[in-house]
Amino acid sequence: MGGTISIPASLRPLLRKKFGVLYEGSGEDNIGKVSRDLDDPIKLISVGDVTTFHLLKSNIIPDILVIDEKTHRQPACEQMITGTKQSGFKELVVNNPAGSITEELVDALAEALGSNRRVRIFVQGEEDLASLPAIMMAPVGSVVLYGQPGEGMMFVRITASKKEEMTELIDKIIDKQHCKEQLYTMWRKLYGYQHN
């Protein structure tokens, strides 16, 4: 089962920070910009149902997609659910409550990053914070795309400095946890990807 990192209220404002380039507007409007800026990433990771749906609809196929069949914490429409299910993807199912990052999610990302197949990670709960470990764990030269609610789509090109920025944020979050010792294994897994 493993540990769970919960985001304390005092650090939630840090999560509103834009970790990449924000493409303002609807998912469909942003696909052209994404396509133009992708530049053959090492890994393309998509987090969120709306972002993933628009990518797949435009035939931009992520290596890893993380979805929870929800939009704005409400069930996604049938078209979106169907549109994020593609043949040829290995399916992983994880539990991850809202406002948290579980070791299950970290393990699934690690498995997906090490796979030579495309991987669909279905989150039972919420994938609202999955972009944080994805940014920290993705190899340099990758791209992570995720929705910024009410604003648009975030485009994060993974660099050594971007991974360091995410490491510092996750350090702050872990430092606020009540049972830090129980997170040691997950911490080691996350930090093992810091220099990839």
From TrEMBL:
GO terms for molecular function: GTP binding; kinase activity. Pathway: Cofactor biosynthesis; coenzyme A biosynthesis. GTP binds at residues 49-50, 68, 70, 127. The keyword Ribosomal protein does not apply. HAMAP family: Dephospho_CoA_kinase_GTP_dep. Catalyzes the GTP-dependent phosphorylation of the 3'-hydroxyl group of dephosphocoenzyme A to form coenzyme A (CoA). This is GTP-dependent dephospho-CoA kinase. PANTHER family: GTP-DEPENDENT DEPHOSPHO-COA KINASE, UPF0218 PROTEIN TK1697. Keywords: Coenzyme A biosynthesis, GTP-binding, Kinase, Nucleotide-binding, Transferase. It catalyses: 3'-dephospho-CoA + GTP = GDP + CoA + H(+). One of its GO terms (biological process) is coenzyme A biosynthetic process. It is an enzyme of class 2 (transferase). Pfam families: DUF359. Its EC number is 2.7.1.237. The keyword GTP-binding applies. It comes from Methanohalophilus halophilus. Belongs to the GTP-dependent DPCK family.
